[in-house]
Design brief:
- It is a single chain.
- The protein is built from eleven helices and two strands, in the order H-H-H-H-H-E-H-H-H-H-E-H-H.
- The chain has 257 residues and is mainly α.
- Helix 3 runs antiparallel to helix 5 and helix 6 runs antiparallel to helix 9.
- The chain starts with a helix and ends in a 15-residue tail after the last helix.
- 13% of the residues are buried.
Length: 257
């Protein structure tokens, strides 16, 4: 849970005003500094905060409340993205490092900066397909900008309340089952796990974060798919029965007639 050196060096050189924001960790909690178990429990609590925000604020009741009392409906997707981003910074900023390395297969002759650069490159190569998924849904819609600036479409927006739940993305009311969605229902979860797991360097902190992510995914997917069933109905139920949730090699128990 450390910011890559390539990022911190760029920020300190060109955007020094942001140094306090990216200077992780924000604080060392002395009362748990000597206990690895206490650190792991505390870090799990941080991930639980992220999971709570990521799941609860995506639910229709939360979106209806925010749209009715706090924010214009066309800004809800952007507000949601900002909330998730803030909680991600909370995880990184307050993460208590165990400083335990499980393995490092990179050459010992490489400097710390070279190792960080190699890890940054490997992660982004593996994560690259995730950007294809974002493009499928339109990046501007994904972060909520289109909903804000397109007046003709701001009347109806994702997560708004209606007799029938509206589509999760404007102008995309049909279920997407093409591209990576042909192989698993949640390719972003899969790609994130692969990006974290396939690495020549593994620390206890990284392994713990992978485990926390798997636990959250098993819970978050349930609530996400419950909402998708409300949106797409029987079409999504059929999709569930024939396409695995995360791992493409999983075999569905229900065969198509």
């Amino acid at each position: 849970m450390q910011m890559p050196v390539i990022y911190t060096n760029f920020i300190s050189t060109y955007l020094p005003i942001l140094n306090p924001l990216f200077n992780f960790p924000y604080v060392h909690i002395n009362t748990i500094s000597s206990s690895v178990t206490a650190k792991l429990i505390f870090n799990a609590f941080l991930n639980a905060i992220f999971g709570l925000v990521h799941t609860v604020f995506a639910q229709e009741f939360a979106q209806v409340f925010l749209g009715r009392f706090l924010f214009p409906k066309q800004t809800l997707r952007t507000v949601y993205c900002l909330l998730v981003t803030v909680t991600a910074f909370i995880i990184m900023g307050f993460w208590q490092h165990t400083h335990i390395q499980l393995w490092n297969w990179l050459p010992s002759t490489m400097s710390d900066y070279q190792q960080n650069l190699a890890l940054f490159f490997i992660f982004n190569v593996i994560y690259a397909p995730a950007w294809y998924v974002v493009i499928q849904f339109n990046p501007f819609e994904f972060c909520g900008l289109k909903q804000i600036f397109n007046k003709t479409e701001s009347i109806g927006c994702p997560y708004s309340s209606s007799v029938k739940s509206e589509a999760r993305t404007i102008n995309n009311p049909t279920l997407v089952t093409t591209g990576l969605f042909r192989y698993c229902r949640h390719p972003l979860y899969l790609i994130t796990l692969l990006s974290l797991t396939i690495t020549p360097v593994m620390s206890l902190d990284r392994l713990a974060f992978i485990i926390y992510t798997c636990i959250y995914g098993s819970i978050g997917i349930y609530f996400e798919e419950r909402k998708l069933i409300q949106i797409f109905g029987q079409a999504y139920i059929d999709y569930q029965q024939h396409v695995p949730a995360i791992f493409p090699f999983s075999v569905s128990k229900t065969k198509q007639n």
